[in-house]
């Protein structure tokens, strides 16, 4: 058994004696005998590091097909992007990994400044003046944006575009059972959101739209802004942060709040987590901002310093009146994202977005040459595309795995006609050779 | 203040001590934006052989932004130097003891870092079908079963990304359960010693908070509890041991009183470290339990996340768990196979995917390493360490609830405040000069000028003695020269920061400067 407890038996005996005790059991005398664990927990005995590692490795080896990893053409909110050695090395520094929320700013300037740089980058990326220090993931950022929007507009009716990630919509709906917000899904038409006129429920307090949307199509944010101007609703845009490297910034197009999934910036696919929720907004919403916020200030000697600020929004002070119950954020992922964005830099992020777009369009054109494969909808897309298939998507994913590919995201159960549709992306990591091999395998898989 | 040494004879000398001061990063560090130099870069991508079509040929030109967002323009060398200097301005568990009460800042085994970077785990896309993710599903099922064994519950969801997300999940489960019985209840009871996330989560769960006071012994006041219990109470949220580090001895009585009015008991797992293998929330009568894997199972804290806050429930609440859940399938194969299942009356979904999966993998590794005996030892030594600190410091600081504690002890600085104008925050800041992190300050709210100390099991007797000596020296200085404490810390990368100014003149980005 591995142990991380330094005490020797003699030291334990000495410490017990100083407390007037003779056994460790006596420390728990305040716990009624009747409810105690008698015997041992139903767990195996502890093992040493090599055995534990071997077990986890054996589990890891059972992923993929016959233990082989798959070349990834799936996206849908989780992307196979480059993670350079420098990001891994710096984000793995134990000063970041083994510290906690920077309650004592004087010994936490490292984390605080990294978060300040992160907030600046997210704000610039989305074209808004303010960003928080991150939330759990894209879904939780969307929930918090909805809560902010309802509080700001005073109206609990939320129009949620069907083009928002299906899982995020589920989370929004689940959380609405507690808040009582009324969620109406606005369907896609021809791949993009067609906003209706307000119905009997009255005008919405919040509208939420993707850019690009989950199926990869570019939405008309100007139209969404016009709905908000007409109804007084708060505009929440769920933006792909990679696409934001080349697309008009959602802030410039009138978004009040921009949320997103930040996994693309240095976090591995990792079966879905930990990722990070990006959250930026206009200044007028600062008092309703959820989660941690780092601000610049000075120390007693007038030196520049950073500290978590506007904490009166938060639950440790505000309790039941807090803007959110979020206490921790995803600091390590946010720091990772800041490092990755600095590594990419101004030119590199745009280049990465261009490479993703070119690879995906190159792939799309090749798929369109296959009999029976057609676009899901006829709308412009940037770096992800949905295609309809002559056979079930599940069959294609299964056959493509034999050829060494994760073919895409099966749209069964999430969109109209989805059981014969696949969401596909090629990131900057996909080579022409891989795409050619993918298309050859795809041709056989749909035959 | 110089670094204290073990000199009181109560522990054998020698042995390592976890503490370090001052931090290296004394010089101010410019932001990455100030280090930028136009044209400098660090990025490189794969050679792909894909034609370089202009973007305007692929999508409508009016959707393109005229200029890319300004990020930073730095070389890889500059970036590494910058971030490394930042790390020198950051305290961490690896550097020294971090006795932050209620946060369980224990040592994080390095093998868990290795686990979280296994390519067979990191390279798996979360949408891949079950047939391609058997290893991950097996891992999640194994962890769920272990967490149920530790807590004495029937089933669990691994989706919640943090403790607070677990709280909200638990409250929505309670709501769904009451609704399924045709009941619409409105109130949730919380003791006045509770963590602030509890009341905030209750509000988001659509309930009204009813606060019950603590009795003079620091536990839930049974009489006050009985006066607020009625058919409109959906449940009660308790932390046990509570935030005073005391075990709620009347827990069985509380459980039956709440259950009698049809309410449910929610266990906030923030302090689970104290009772691993000793007593289980399920056996205390709890219906819903959240765990903080970053605390109890050391996954670690990451500067304030990622955490993981799985929620375990009793049999009757299992049909309401978020889905899809990883499940072991009945099969006749030699190796079991795994799949996904959505519970009958599921409340829905609480995470974009399956929870903070790589954090969950770390927790499973931690549990395998410790096993049934190791986990019990964790609790035993965590409680021993806290009581040793309590005993040692009870002559120096006021101990408002002076009886044996569990994994943490709450001291009060109220006498020093009254007599010398020294506050808990001053003591905390002075601690930063001694090579240790400060305890939790001003919490729980029911103790005036509170210092909450949780040493954890991984700090050695030598470290504890050194920590105690440091706190004694600070108390002595408070009596001798209180102004010196108002001026602390002195040896940290920055002196005391102006929090009021940060809030008054908000500068949350470099562009707001």
Layout: helices, strands, pairs:
The complex is a heterodimer of chains A (447) and B (513).
Chain A: H1 9-18, H2 49-60, E1 71-72, H3 85-91, H4 94-97, H5 109-126, E2 130-131, H6 138-153, E3 157-161, H7 166-179, E4 182-186, E5 188-189, E6 192-193, E7 206-211, H8 221-231, E8 234-239, E9 257-261, E10 277-281, E11 294-298, E12 304-308, H9 315-318, H10 331-368, E13 374-375, E14 385-388, H11 393-402, E15 405-406, E16 409-410, E17 421-424, H12 432-445
Parallel strand pairs in A: 1-15, 3-4, 3-7, 7-8, 8-9
Antiparallel strand pairs in A: 2-10, 5-6, 9-10, 11-12, 13-14, 14-17, 16-17
Chain B: H1 76-87, H2 111-115, H3 119-122, H4 134-151, E1 155-157, H5 163-180, E2 187-191, H6 197-204, E3 208-212, H7 222-228, E4 233-238, H8 251-260, E5 264-269, H9 281-284, E6 288-291, H10 293-296, E7 311-313, E8 325-329, E9 337-341, H11 357-393, E10 409-412, H12 414-420, H13 424-431, E11 440-441, E12 450-453, H14 461-480, H15 482-486, H16 499-504
Parallel strand pairs in B: 2-3, 2-4, 4-5, 5-6
Antiparallel strand pairs in B: 1-7, 6-7, 8-9, 10-12, 11-12
Helix pairs in contact in B: 4-11, 5-6, 11-14
């Amino acid at each position: 058994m591995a142990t991380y407890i330094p005490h020797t038996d003699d030291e334990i005996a000495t410490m017990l004696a100083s407390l007037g005790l003779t056994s460790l059991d006596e420390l728990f005398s305040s716990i009624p005998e009747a409810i105690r664990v008698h015997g041992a927990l139903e767990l195996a005995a502890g093992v040493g590091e090599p055995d534990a590692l071997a077990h986890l490795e054996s589990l890891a080896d059972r992923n993929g097909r016959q233990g082989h990893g798959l070349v990834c053409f799936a996206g849908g909110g989780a992307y196979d992007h480059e993670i350079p050695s420098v990001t891994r090395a710096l984000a793995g520094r134990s000063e970041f990994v083994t510290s906690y929320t920077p309650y004592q700013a004087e010994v936490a300037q490292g984390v605080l400044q990294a978060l300040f740089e992160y907030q600046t980058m997210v704000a610039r990326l989305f074209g808004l003046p303010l960003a928080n220090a991150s939330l759990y993931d894209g879904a939780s950022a969307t929930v918090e944006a909805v809560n902010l929007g309802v509080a700001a507009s005073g109206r609990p009716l939320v129009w949620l575009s069907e083009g928002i990630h299906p899982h995020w919509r589920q989370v929004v709906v689940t959380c609405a059972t507690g808040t009582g917000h009324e969620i109406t899904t606005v369907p896609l038409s021809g791949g993009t959101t067609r906003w209706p006129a307000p119905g009997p429920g009255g005008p919405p307090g919040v509208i939420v739209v993707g850019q690009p949307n989950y199926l990869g199509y570019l939405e008309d944010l100007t139209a969404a802004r016009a709905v908000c101007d007409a109804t007084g609703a708060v505009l929440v845009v769920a933006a792909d942060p990679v696409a934001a490297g080349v697309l008009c910034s959602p802030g410039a197009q009138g978004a009040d709040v921009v949320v997103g999934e930040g996994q693309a910036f240095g976090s591995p696919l990792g079966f879905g987590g930990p990722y990070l929720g990006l959250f930026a907004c206009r200044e007028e919403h600062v008092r309703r901002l959820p989660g941690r916020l780092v601000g610049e200030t000075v120390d007693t000697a007038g030196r520049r310093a950073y500290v978590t600020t506007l904490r009166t929004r938060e639950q440790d002070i505000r309790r039941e009146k807090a803007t959110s119950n979020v206490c921790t954020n995803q600091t390590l992922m946010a720091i990772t994202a800041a490092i990755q964005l600095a590594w990419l830099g101004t030119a590199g992020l745009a280049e990465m977005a261009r490479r993703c777009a070119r690879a995906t369009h190159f792939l799309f054109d090749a798929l369109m040459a296959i009999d029976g494969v057609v676009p899901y909808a006829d709308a412009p897309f940037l770096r992800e595309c949905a295609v309809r298939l002559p056979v079930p998507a599940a069959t294609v994913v299964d056959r493509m795995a034999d050829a060494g590919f994760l073919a895409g995201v099966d749209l069964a159960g999430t969109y109209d006609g989805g059981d014969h549709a696949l969401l596909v992306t090629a990131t900057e990591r996909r080579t022409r050779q891989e795409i050619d091999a993918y298309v050859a395998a795809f041709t056989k898989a749909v035959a | 203040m110089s670094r204290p040494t073990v000199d009181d004879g109560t522990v054998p000398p020698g042995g390592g001590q976890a503490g370090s001061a001052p931090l290296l990063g004394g010089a101010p560090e410019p932001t990455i934006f100030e280090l930028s130099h136009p044209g400098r870069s660090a990025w490189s991508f794969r050679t792909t052989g894909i034609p370089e079509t202009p973007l305007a040929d692929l999508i409508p030109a009016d959707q393109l932004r005229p200029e890319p967002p300004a990020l930073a323009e730095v070389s890889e060398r500059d970036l590494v130097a910058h971030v490394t200097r930042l790390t020198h301005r950051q305290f961490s568990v690896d550097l020294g003891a971090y006795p932050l009460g209620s946060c369980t800042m224990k040592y994080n085994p390095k093998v868990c870092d290795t686990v979280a970077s296994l390519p067979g785990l990191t390279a798996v896309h979360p949408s891949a079908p079950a047939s391609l993710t058997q290893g991950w599903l097996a891992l999640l099922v194994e962890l769920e079963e272990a967490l149920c064994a530790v807590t004495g519950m029937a089933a669990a969801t691994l989706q919640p990304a943090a403790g607070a997300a677990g709280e909200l999940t638990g409250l929505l489960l309670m709501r769904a359960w009451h609704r399924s019985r045709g009941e619409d209840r409105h109130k949730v009871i919380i003791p006045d010693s509770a963590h602030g996330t509890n009341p905030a989560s209750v509000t988001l769960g659509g309930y009204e908070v009813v606060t019950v006071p603590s009795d003079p012994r620091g536990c839930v006041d049974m009489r006050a509890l009985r006066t607020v219990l009625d058919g409109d109470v959906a449940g009660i949220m308790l932390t046990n041991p509570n935030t005073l580090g005391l075990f709620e001895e009347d827990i069985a009585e509380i459980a039956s009183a709440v259950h009698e009015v049809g309410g449910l008991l929610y266990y906030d797992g923030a302090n689970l470290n104290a009772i691993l293998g000793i007593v289980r929330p399920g056996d205390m009568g709890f219906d819903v339990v959240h765990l903080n894997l970053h605390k109890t199972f050391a996954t670690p804290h990451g500067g304030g996340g990622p955490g993981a806050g799985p929620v375990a429930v009793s049999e009757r609440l299992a049909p309401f768990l978020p889905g899809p859940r990883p499940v072991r399938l009945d099969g006749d194969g030699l190796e079991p196979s795994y799949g996904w299942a959505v519970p009958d009356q599921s409340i829905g979904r609480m995470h974009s995917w399956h929870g903070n999966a790589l954090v969950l993998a770390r927790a499973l590794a931690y549990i395998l390493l410790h096993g049934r005996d190791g986990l019990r030892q964790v609790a035993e030594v965590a409680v021993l360490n806290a009581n040793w600190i309590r005993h040692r410091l009870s002559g120096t600081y006021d101990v408002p609830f002076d009886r044996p504690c569990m994994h943490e002890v709450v001291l009060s600085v109220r006498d020093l405040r009254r007599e010398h104008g020294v506050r808990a925050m001053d003591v905390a800041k002075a601690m930063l000069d001694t090579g240790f992190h400060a305890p939790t300050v001003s919490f729980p709210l029911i103790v005036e000028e509170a210092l909450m100390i949780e040493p954890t099991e991984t700090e050695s007797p030598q470290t504890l003695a050194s920590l105690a000596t440091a706190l004694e020296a600070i108390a002595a200085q408070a009596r001798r020269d209180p102004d010196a404490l108002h001026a602390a810390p002195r040896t940290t990368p920055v002196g005391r920061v102006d929090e009021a100014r940060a809030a008054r003149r908000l500068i949350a980005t470099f562009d707001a400067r």
